Amino acid sequence: MSRVLVVDDDAAIRTVVAQALRRAGHEVSTAETLAQLDRALATSMPDVLVSDVVLPDGDGIARMAEITARMPSLPIIILSAQNTLTTAVRAAEVGAYEYLPKPFDLDDLTRAVSGALARGSVSPSLPISEDHALPLIGRSPAMQNVYRVIARVVSNDLTVLISGESGTGKELVARAIHDLGHRAQAPFVAINMAAIPRELIEAELFGHERGAFTGAAQRNAGRFEQAAGGTLFLDEIGDMPMEAQTRLLRVLQSGEFTSVGGARTIRSDVRIVAATNRDLAVQVAA
User: Fold this and answer.
1) How far, in Å, CA of 17 to CA of 11, rounded?
2) CB–CB of 97/158 below 8 Å?
3) Would you give the distance in Å from CA 7 to the centre of its chain?
4) In sequence order, what are the beta bridge partners of 58?
């Protein structure tokens, strides 16, 4: 039977969470302060630690960072009523397996505990500072899901596709991913694929050499070169012509490209974040 330690200063939450986890077959112990948490950990290490953020004697996330340093194999799940992007990313930063904003569904917590037991802890990410530096606000359940996804991708260089209707803030999400990641000090370059004539898209993305086409009086660096070391945001990627998609695919696969009219291979060092208001799965299937 797995052992779960629940830390929360709200007696009702401790009781309800403990009962739900016991019904799921776990052995549960509880603590209401960081001092009680320390005493519990000194006695034995649980299989999963579930902790609130705001506790009577300190900051739960700050203490989780210390615990992760001492016990890197201990999976941690963060609960919080401070439902902001900062909280979600701070939770990821200290290596939390999952972040659940309050109020949360007990089934979600039970699944998170099961997943934590199966996968263990994750690696700590990069530190962030205060909310005023972040482009996103909102505490609705939908925004909480957005924050949780952002928190999971900021620590890696995976290509990200953001989908949503026009005007819903897709570029703000892209900027948050850039600003909170390790490429934050490098350029964030955005390009709207729908606003560029089809015949100029490749030159815009990959640059062109002098004399490559009529009017190319000098060499021009494309957006991939401009974004070197940083993030390239391809907005309205669903409007990109098929022939340009082929060249983009090559860059994504090999990390290399050539400018229009050029022969020299250029190494790409950018993170790609794309966005669309179209249902790309439907278009691919069509």
Assistant:
1) 10
2) no
3) 26
4) 55
Type of residue numbered 55? L
8 A C-beta contact, residue 61 and residue 53: yes
**268 close to 217: Cβ distance less than 8 angstroms:** no
pLDDT of 224 > 60? The answer is: yes
pLDDT at 88: 86
**Distance (Å, whole) CA 69 – CA 81:** 25
Q: How far is CA 268 from the centre of its chain?
A: 22
Report the pLDDT value the prediction gives residue 217, as an integer from 0 to 100.
Answer: 77
pLDDT band at 121 (very low <50, low <70, confident <90, very high): very low
Check: CB of residue 71 under 8 Å from CB of residue 40. no
What domains can be seen in the chain, in order of their start residue?
A: 3-147 (3.40.50.2300), 157-285 (3.40.50.300)
Residue 96 has pLDDT above 60, yes or no: yes
Which tokens sit at 254? 């090999």
Residue with tokens 């249902």: 279
Count CB-CB contacts under 10 A for residue 277.
Answer: 17
Cα–Cα distance, 178 to 257 (Å, whole number): 23
Q: Which of 146, 75, 168 is nearest to 115 (CA)?
A: 75
Indicate the pLDDT class of residue 149, thresholds 50, 70 and 90. Answer: confident
In the block, which residue shows the tokens 């701070």?
90
